[in-house]
Specification:
alpha/beta
């Protein structure tokens, strides 16, 4: 399992619990300070299956840093940096900092991240893409762009993964869509992309 945008490790530590501290869980991030914090939290929590790595943000160095994981991961989670529009109910002032140019930068970065980390997924494995955005540009449009360039990937409807009872509550269609006014949470988007065997 790979947590490609691990940050300080909240998701990584939850994944370690779900994995019962077994197997290899690779936590990657471009920020050394966040990775250091993740290492401290993992030690404090007794988590020993996490392998942390600071990776370059762009360029051939980034590709070289990830080469050892290429085609080897059962699951790759890309919780991509985004506009954060799903958090506006808690941070209303953030809406004034979002410009069309910043949104375009987020979308370009999200496409690059999906492209880069998709190479780690082994045949039959899954690429899980998520944001805390409610904007189609950062969500469905990014996934559609990726799928158009990667015919070896297909969407697994989230409802199939969650089961009929919970699946019907996370939005119509194949993706996870949570909204403050419907679910009492921040706005979130999720997609499960399966690589052909």
């Amino acid at each position: 399992m790979v947590d490609a945008c691990a940050g300080a490790g909240g998701k990584t530590l939850q994944l370690a619990v779900q994995m019962k501290n077994r197997g290899d869980l690779h936590a990657l991030d471009v920020d050394e300070g966040r990775i250091d914090e993740l290492r401290k939290r993992a030690r404090r929590d007794g988590v020993h299956n996490v392998r942390t790595q600071v990776i370059p943000a762009e360029g051939p160095e980034a590709d070289a840093a990830l080469a050892s994981l290429e085609g080897k991961a059962d699951r790759v989670l890309v919780d991509a940096p985004c506009s954060g529009t799903g958090t506006f109910r808690r941070r209303p002032d953030a809406r004034y900092r979002l410009t069309p140019e910043r949104l375009a930068d987020h979308v370009a970065r999200q496409k690059r991240l999906l492209e880069r980390f998709s190479r780690m997924v082994k045949p039959g494995g899954r690429l899980i893409y998520g944001t805390c955005s409610v904007l189609r540009e950062e969500n469905e449009a990014v996934v559609e762009d990726f799928l158009a360039k990667h015919p070896d990937y297909s969407v697994r409807p989230v409802a199939e993964e969650l089961g009929p009872e919970l699946g019907t509550k996370v939005g119509p269609g194949p993706f996870l869509r949570l909204a403050p006014h419907l679910h009492g949470t921040d706005g979130f988007f999720g997609a499960i992309l399966v690589r052909a065997k």
